[in-house]
Amino acid sequence: MSLNFDLTLPSAWFLVPTSVALKHLPSATETELKVLLWLLAAGSKATEEAACEALGLTASAVGEAVAAWVDRGVFMLSDKQVALAPPAACETPAASRRTETRRPSYRFAEVEAALAQNPNLRSALLTGQSMLGRTFSSTEYEILYALGDYYGLPPETILLLFSQCRAEGKTSAKAIEERAAEWMRLGISDPADAERYIARRRSAKSAESTVRAVFGIGERRLSKKERDFISRWTEDFRYERDMIELAYEKCVDATGKLSFAYIDRILSSWNAKGIATPEAAAAEVPPPAKTAGRKKQDTAGAPSYDIDKFMEWNFNELFGKGDDEK
């Protein structure tokens, strides 16, 4: 769909909502941040087409980024009109957590009494037992009660947390708490934020698996820079395996080795040119080969004299001419 924007008047300076920096910055993707900043700077003069052209993104990518900011409560959408949402009246539970560096300890009797007063949290923990296939011990209840009380996760988000931990095979109470602490640092509290995070994480894992297979690098640990490269290729450029594989082959043919940076230059160039298929990449006309100037004539192996005439002259000088020539 075609979107219209009415955000703020463009000027030499523009404001960014506080919630973006304090809550959403860690979990936002590079594309989402690019779209947000460009739209805030362009203000009421922003159009979907101009955003696509300025950022080198498709209309679908811009629309998904805008939808993400609508879900986070930064933008609001009404009848295809996008505007800044008013500031929230209060902070989310995760943002207003107490400042202790360590969560408080709970006694099981206290947890039982608290859960009796909080049926939604109690139901989430009981459902978690079914999801993970075991009954929580009293010690585990003391840890997992903190998911709602200390880490500020609503019951719906706690169920999503259980689901992700089960998918990753990390189902101990300690592992679940570690993931909850990570979500707290990232400002993830709402179910929508958690679902986006899980989807991005699943997509990133799939992309990394694909790149490992194409590059033949096995299960070695990827560096942060390598993961960032993969994220740019698959999330920002939206390239599939065939394009990454073609760039890999060009890299190896040109350098004789794997280079993430070299492949990134190839894919960045294709993205800037709007090349989206292997056929279009194969049809790309390479730049003319550079020449060092006009090639000099190779005279190193050619004598500067007539060897036959020299031999004749040398014979006559040594032995003289015949009597019939005198």
TrEMBL record:
Residues 279-303 are annotated as: Disordered. Pfam families: DnaB_2 (PF07261). InterPro entries: DnaB/C_C (IPR006343), DnaD (IPR053162), DnaD-like_sf (IPR034829). Residues 131-198, 220-283 form the DnaB/C C-terminal domain. SUPFAM superfamilies: DnaD domain-like (SSF158499). This is DnaB/C C-terminal domain-containing protein. It comes from bioreactor metagenome. The lineage of its organism: unclassified sequences, metagenomes, ecological metagenomes.
